[in-house]
Amino acid sequence: MTDLEFWPMGAEVSVRDAFGRVLVHMADERKDWVLLDADVAGGTGAKPLVAAHPDRVVQFGIAEQNMMAAAGGMADTGLIPVVSTFAAFGTMRAHEQFRTAIAYPNRNVKLCCSHIGLDVGPDGATAQMLEDLATMRAVPGVTVISPADANEFMQAFEAILDHDGPVYMRIGRSPTPVVTDSAAPFRIGKAKRLREGSDVTVVATGVMVARALKAAEALAAENISVRVVNMASIKPIDTDELVAAARETKGIVTAEDHNVIGGLGGAVAECLAAHHPARVRFVGVQDRFGKSGEHTNLPAALGIAADDVAAACRALLKD
Amino acid sequence: MTDLEQRARDIRAGAVKAVHAARSGHPGGSLSIADMLAVLYFDEMNVDPAKPDAPGRDRFVLSKGHACPALYIALAMKGFFPMEEALKLRKLEGFMEGHPDVRIPGVDAPSGSLGMGLSQGLGMAIGAKLQGLDFRTYVIVGDGDMQEGNSWEAIMSAGFKKMDNLVAIYDANKLQGDAPVETQLDLGDVAAKVAPFGWHVIELDGHDIGALKAALAEARATKGKPTFIVADTVKGKGVSFMENVLYWHGSVTMSDEELANALSELEDA
Question: Of these residues, A5, A12, A64, A222, which one is catalytic?
Fold first, then answer.
């Protein structure tokens, strides 16, 4: 048994490489799960498991509704199905199968989907799933996780296998800076404060965490002190951390590679409205579909670059 | 009347009583599957009401979940819960959901949204093979079920995977929610369409208990293929004024007089 190898801080790593690595590692660690694939292991990052442990993979071909409902049935036999496909198919095409055959009976299935957000890049709007956080967190009893980087993904994968119940987790695709230290534990429902600050708090998830840190650095030069919170656990959300941000800073900017409706921003606003009303600004894709482009130029074109996070912070402080 | 015929009659009477008490629900499709349920629960399947979650138990999925009044009565007759609970169908104060819910002892899969049952059964069958468990999985599908694309994904996959521990029983009663199948989406010769996907197909009279027993035995003896039983049935079977009458698909409110007439017919049968 080998220890899981993490990446150094600052390295640029595709989260799907972490998916492949942690799958192979956990195949040795635990025998109680299998991967369900719909002919996209090359795209989701699961290919190393297919090569190393083909006996741990159940292939469904391009038929995601069947795969999802079958995962529900399989969980009834005591195995933990890790279902993996592109988010458009896993969270939309097969959404009702997830809801009715997995979430409603509270079956122990882990849905891990790649091709999320503008992070997808050139494949364009049909593949760029910008609605998954909203649709998945609306289903009762479902845990929703959006890791910031490759290291956190691997920690989170172990955590969701330990958690009894349905989980949805995002898998990023583009090379993304590693911003989390593997020494800091990942816990479902707990945020990680990555930078202290007193003027404004950026609550970010996924690829936006690195951009939030970049924005905070730029704003420091303007004497604006920005707290950065990595909210990988979208549901359950870390109420204590959000209330602290609302109390201790002048307002909150949410940042997500997702539609501004119903995702992280919605979850933060719901939480604060109930517990500690505060000013909130939302950085995300402005209720439109995505577009072909590169992960390098798409964020600025559609308003989710580091500069957009910084601009939202400045605007919030002027409100 | 044989023991299994008596069981089927009791399932029918119980289902009609439950729908009457609920003032809603689906009697027609409940009556058409009563013989299948009698054979499955009182002859074929290895289930123990004292251990409803036993890992090695045979599994049953009612993909046409609206016919659950019959399932709940069969489970109560088997001893999973008291009959009085089964008669609290669709009530806030009971736990007999309007469509199957795994929180009900003996219910192995949720359904009520058509087309997902065969896939759930497939997942159970795969789980059995992966873990070396020898239980079998049975799924009842209906006419509406077979119109869902999800069902055909499951048919493709189960045949391709040679899931010989999986049995589908197709309750072909020829009437669906709004109209006869022939006006909505007639699939024609379903047996001839399923077989090429790698299934062993058996056609029979879905109210012939001897034929159902023989078909399930044939399925057990069939290696390398799942079995698909096309059961020709009568919607509303056993209650003359409900037989082949679309209205009784449901959801319906049954009068006291209709209940009395139905029970009288079933008792005289």
Answer: A64
For the segment(s) B3-268, the CATH number from 3.40.50.2300, 3.30.450.180, 3.20.20.105, 3.40.50.970 is: 3.40.50.970
A64 noted as active-site residue: yes
Q: Is B157 on the interface with A (CB under 8 A)?
A: yes
**Whole-number Å distance between alpha carbons of B144 and B181:** 8
- pTM exceeds 0.95 for this model: yes
Predicted confidence (pLDDT) per residue in A46-67, tens digit: 999 999 999 999 999 999 999 9
- Averaged pLDDT for residues B121-130: 98
Structure token digits, residue B51: 């251990």
pLDDT for B55 beyond 70: yes
Containing B217, the helix (H) or strand (E) segment is: helix B209-221
B124 interaction partners in chain A (CB closer than 8 Å): 73-74, 76-77
Report chain A residues whose CB lies below 8 A from the CB of B157.
60-61, 63, 66, 70
Q: A2: pLDDT confidence band, cut at 50, 70 and 90?
A: low
Q: Both tokens of residue B72?
A: 């709940």
Identify whether the C-beta of residue B11 lies closer than 8 Å to the C-beta of residue B104: no
Which among B34, B50, B61, B38 is positioned nearest to B166, based on CA atoms?
B61
Q: What is the rounded CA–CA span in Å between residue A28 and residue B202?
A: 43
Interval A147-175: pLDDT, tens: 999 999 999 999 999 999 999 999 999 99
The pLDDT of residue A192 is above 60: yes
Contacts of A96 in chain B (CB under 8 A): 113, 116
Q: Check if B155 contacts A (Cβ < 8 Å).
A: no
Q: Does A68 touch chain B (CB under 8 A)?
A: yes
| Residue-averaged pLDDT of chain B | 97
Residue A182's pLDDT is what? 87
pLDDT (0 to 100) of residue B269: 76
Token pair of B158 as six digits: 């189960």
Give the residue extent of every domain in chain A: 12-177, 192-318
CATH, domain range A12-177? 3.40.50.970
Please answer whether residues A202 and A313 qualify as being in contact, where contact means their C-beta atoms are separated by less than 8 angstroms. yes
